[in-house]
Amino acid sequence: MGQRGEPRRVQAYDGELGAAVARAQQGDEAAFAVAYRLVQPGLLGYVRGLVGDDAEDVAADAWLEIARDLRRFKGDGAGFRGWTATIARHRALDHLRRQKVRPRPTALEQDVLDLPGPHSTHDQVLETLSTRAALTLVAALPRDQAEAVLLRVVVGLDGPSAARVLGKRPGAVRTATYRGLKRLARQLGADGVTDDGPRTLGEST
């Protein structure tokens, strides 16, 4: 199982993903297709949050690099998600440098926002968000908060993994995630949300 606070949906397939990656590294093309199927939805959502409508092209470039360097990867399913997110982020930032525009988060996929847990600020915000609302609200977040939310919610990384992708300390990513979700909560006017300090996504006190 994955780290505490990870979405259960991601935890559930990490074992399958790790096994598929191991087979793919031995040249099993069908296993690589399985790994792609498990990772691509979240990875594409994250890239879309950075580059908008160019996400498909940027993600395709990232997968070319992933396939090329696959044999050099070492780790489990959760590690593979972090590794692919790092590659995708580099490709997205390269794209943005070429386009000379700032990253802007866009629509989140509603089906990856269904996180379980107690009735905390995080859970109530995520349950309230629709795709249209996410497009407007997440785009208004500061970049560090938006990207932290994307990695934690869309890609499903735990705090330390998201921190490695961003090159930041886990505490900084945890705080950015918390602040981003709290800001969304205020904008949504969520009723009865708790305010008991930063914690990893989905954690209860």
Please render the helix and strand layout as text.
Blueprint: H1 8-24, H2 29-51, H3 55-69, H4 77-99, H5 121-128, H6 131-139, H7 143-155, H8 159-166, H9 170-188
Helix pairs in contact: 1-2, 2-3, 2-4, 2-7, 3-4, 4-8, 5-9, 7-9, 8-9
Can you characterise this structure?
The chain has nine helices and no strands. The chain is mainly α and 205 residues long. The N terminus and C terminus are likely disordered. Helix 2 packs across helix 3 and helix 2 packs across helix 4. Keywords: Sigma factor, Transcription, Transcription regulation. Belongs to the sigma-70 factor family. ECF subfamily.
Largest sheet entry: none
Poorly predicted spans:
1-6, 106-119, 191-205
Mean pLDDT over the residues: 76
Our Rg estimate from Cα atoms comes to 16 Å
Rough outline: globular
The count of DSSP E runs of length 2 or more, i.e. the number of strands, is 0
Roughly how many Å apart are the termini? 20 Å
The residue fraction in helices comes out at 55-70%
Tell me the number of helical segments per DSSP (H or I, 4 or more residues long): 9
Residues in β-strands, percent: under 5%
Helix-strand category: mainly alpha
- Write the H/E string, N to C: HHHHHHHHH
Pfam families: Sigma70_r2, Sigma70_r4_2
Organism: Streptomyces tendae
InterPro entries: RNA_pol_sigma-70-like, RNA_pol_sigma-70_dom, RNA_pol_sigma70_r2, RNA_pol_sigma70_r4_t2, RNA_pol_sigma_r2, RNA_pol_sigma_r3/r4-like, WH-like_DNA-bd_sf
Domain RNA polymerase sigma factor 70 region 4 type: 133-184
